[in-house]
UniProtKB/TrEMBL annotation:
Belongs to the sulfotransferase 1 family. One of its GO terms (biological process) is catecholamine metabolic process. Residues 38-290 form the Sulfotransferase domain. It is an enzyme of class 2 (transferase). Keywords: Catecholamine metabolism, Cytoplasm, Transferase. Gene3D superfamilies: P-loop containing nucleotide triphosphate hydrolases. One of its GO terms (molecular function) is sulfotransferase activity. It holds the Pfam family Sulfotransfer_1. GO terms for cellular component: cytoplasm. Its EC number is 2.8.2.-. It is found in: Cytoplasm. This is Sulfotransferase.
Amino acid sequence: MASKKRPCRPEMFDFEGISMTNFFTDNWEKVKNFQSRPDDILIATYPKAGTTWVSYILDLLYFSNDDPECQTSQPIYMRIPFLESCFQEFSTVTGTEMADSLTTTPRLIKTHLPVQLVPKSFWDQNSRIVYVARNAKDNAVSYFHFDRMNMVQPEPGDFNHFLQKFMKGKNVFGPWFDHVSGWWEKKQTYSNLLYLFYEDLVEDTGREVERLCSFLGVSTSVEEREKITKMVQFDDMKQNKMINHETIPFMDFKISPFMRKGKVGDWKGHFTVAQNEQFDEVYKQKMKNTTLKFRTEI
Ligand code: A3P
């Protein structure tokens, strides 16, 4: 990510039934044929659901003792490749190339792909997957601010415009509704998948770190877990230049920081009463066939 060139905002188009931009489809043959390994850990999320948070927790759980230097000198997006990314204007390496060149074990790999587009080898290798989901209203608000400040995302327009698009599922990586419920259904048959909620992480980070350790079979001392839990608090992550994304050239922090609020219920300051009623109606309809339940406040 060396170049400081400011990009044009991309167009969205339909890709396998999902709204996408070229940054996530240009390398598709390599993504589709990506060779996973049995000990890989895939961190899967809809954008803005807490990807960086869980990525950092896993990074600390696996590598803080081995290579503390690395955590203070290398941004998280270099340590945890974003599988489908292909930002040719800014980086000479694609997400798949970065993943292929990782020498650490396990490899931690991030994706925003809906479950049906995940490369087949992850299922064949029975790789472990951590999925994080966040309630739709806060997820939408966070995504709106992200699209405002991230110049490689489509222009969001005003909040109402963005929200109408969100309800129709016309965001990069497709409908939130199908993403969270598709991965939820997968969990019913694929046992190597841990489904976490952003709201649970906010409520009790230590408990969720423990849950992660037990799913991954990582044994850490209570002291170590407490240390990690402290390091991944919002204010600490916001100050950490290797985590807070301020080194990314196409994000404009004057518009909004990447680590913005980190709250459950922030949507209440964004939705009008009418927008909230409309959203609840759409939500009821779109989520009527799933057992998945979210908390919009804690
Ligand atoms: P907000 O925009 O609501 O603040 P992702 O990493 O998937 O892009 O998600 C980013 C969202 O997760 C942002 O939400 C960010 O502030 C929030 N986040 C990241 N780390 C967090 C933490 N330690 N505690 C609470 N929220 C966190």
